[in-house]
Amino acid sequence: MESDAQSPRALTPFGKYLLDEQIAEGGMARVYSARLVGLGGFEKRLVVKQVRPELARDPRFVTMFVDEAKTLGRMSHPHIVPVYELGVVDGTYFLAMEYVEGATLEAILAEGPLDAPLVAHVGMQIADALAYAHGQFALIHRDVTPRNIMVDARGHVRLLDFGIATGATEGAQDEVMGSIGYMAPEQA
Questions:
Q1: For residue 167, pLDDT beyond 70
Q2: How far apart, in whole angstroms, are the C-alpha atoms of residue 160 and residue 110?
Q3: 20 in catalytic set
Q4: pTM
Q5: Of 142, 144, 158, whose CA–CA distance to 99 is shortest?
Q6: Strand pairing partners for 167?
Q7: Which of 20, 115, 143, 152 is catalytic?
Q8: For residues 19 and 90, what is the distance between their CA atoms, to the nearest angstrom?
Q9: What is the greatest pairwise CA distance in the chain?
């Protein structure tokens, strides 16, 4: 006899984390909601970002991923999602990051245009995050898109995905990377 009640979703073990569901996928990585479970019922919800298996063998992509983690690990800003850990499990490189309960700006925009005060609110918080990244770390994000901006239920805005960021003095800044529709004209 089948039950109408849904069974709990099976969690996939990944090192010390339990992966729940895939919540995003980009050119370099897959992103999962996850849990860290510990003694006495301790549980922390977070995100695990894994290098795509087909790219994990490419030293260039692994280097970009590790560089993203090292940079984010040094950052502490209210509008930038923090990284808790960089690691490797069975050859899969990953980042453990804060879980932001909310929606991407891309999903919010899909519901219709935003009013001017909300546009200003989001813009100011992202500008603050970018100013911090550039001022403190000479970092250029290079992929500020609605997909890489999260807004929580309280309207707190967070910038994600520094995976293709570059230092302002690095030679790599001459390489065209990012989302063409959101690039500065001089870069595209």
A1: no
A2: 19
A3: no
A4: 0.80
A5: 158
A6: 139
A7: 143
A8: 15
A9: 66
- Which residue matches tokens 């260039």? 60
Place of tokens 């805005």: 157
Strands 149-152, 102-104: pairing is antiparallel
Backbone angles phi, psi at 156, to 5 degrees: -75, 130
CA 38 from chain center: how many Å?
24
Q: Which domains does the chain have, with CATH numbers?
A: 12-98 (3.30.200.20), 102-182 (1.10.510.10)
Two structure tokens written together for 4: 């109408």
CA–CA gap between residue 40 and residue 126 (Å, rounded): 38
Q: Which residues of 91-106 are buried (b: 16+ CB within 10 A; e: fewer)?
A: ebbbbbbebbebbbbe
| Residue 20: both structure tokens together | 């729940």
Residue 128: half-sphere exposure toward Cβ, Cα within 13 Å: 14
Exposed / middle / buried, residue 74 (Cβ in 10 Å: 0-12, 13-18, 19+): exposed
pLDDT digits (tens, 9 = 90+) for 57-99: 898 888 888 887 888 899 999 999 999 999 999 999 999 999 9
Cβ–Cβ under 8 Å, residues 140 and 162: no
Q: Report how far residue 133's alpha carbon sits from residue 37's, in angstroms, rounded to the nearest whole number.
A: 32
